[in-house]
Write a structure and sequence with these properties.
Strand 7 (about 70-75) and strand 8 (about 80-85) form a beta hairpin. The chain has strands at about 1-5, 10-15, 20-25, 30-40, 45-50, 60, 70-75, 80-85, 90-100, 115, 120-125. Helices cover about 0% and strands about 50% of the residues. It has about 130 residues and is mostly beta strands.
C-alpha cells in the first residue's frame, strides 16, 4: 500500500501561483512513478503531469506545458506540482497518484492506470 496526502491547494487570483505537495508513505516511494490529475465539477478526471521514478523524465498535458512543473524529492517521499499563471479554468480538485515503476510511460496516462490515489486538494482561481 502507498498512502498519498496532498496539500497546498487554496484560493488564488488569476495570474497567481500555487505549489501543491503530495507526501507518500508506505512502500518504497522511489519504486513508483507519480502523476497529477485534476477534476473540475461536472467533468471527468483529466491528466495533468507525470514524472518518472528518478524524476529525470516528465510529461505534461499539452494545454499546461510552460505553466505547470512537476518534480519529486525521493529523500522526502514527496512530489510537487508548481502551477504558475493560473487561470479560472484551472479550478479543480487536484489529485496525486502513484503507479508502479515498470508500468509507467512518458505519456498522458489514464486514471485507471494508476494504482494509488490521494484524497485531493481544492484549487480555486478567481477572475
Amino acid at each position: 500500500q502507498v498512502q498519498l496526502v496532498e496539500s497546498g491547494g487554496g484560493l488564488v487570483q488569476a495570474g497567481g501561483s500555487l505549489r501543491l505537495s503530495c507526501a507518500a508513505s508506505g512502500r518504497t516511494f522511489s519504486s513508483y512513478a507519480m502523476g497529477w490529475f485534476r477534476q473540475a465539477p461536472g467533468k471527468e478526471r483529466e491528466f495533468v503531469a507525470t514524472i518518472s521514478l528518478s524524476g529525470g523524465r516528465t510529461y505534461y498535458a499539452d494545454s499546461l506545458k510552460g505553466r505547470f512543473t512537476i518534480s519529486r524529492d525521493n529523500a522526502k517521499n514527496t512530489v510537487y506540482l508548481q502551477m504558475n499563471s493560473l487561470k479560472p479554468e484551472d479550478t479543480a480538485v487536484y489529485y496525486c497518484a502513484a503507479v508502479y515503476g515498470s508500468h509507467w510511460y512518458p505519456g498522458p496516462g489514464l486514471p485507471r492506470e494508476y494504482d494509488y490515489w490521494g484524497q485531493g486538494t481544492q484549487v480555486t482561481v478567481s477572475s
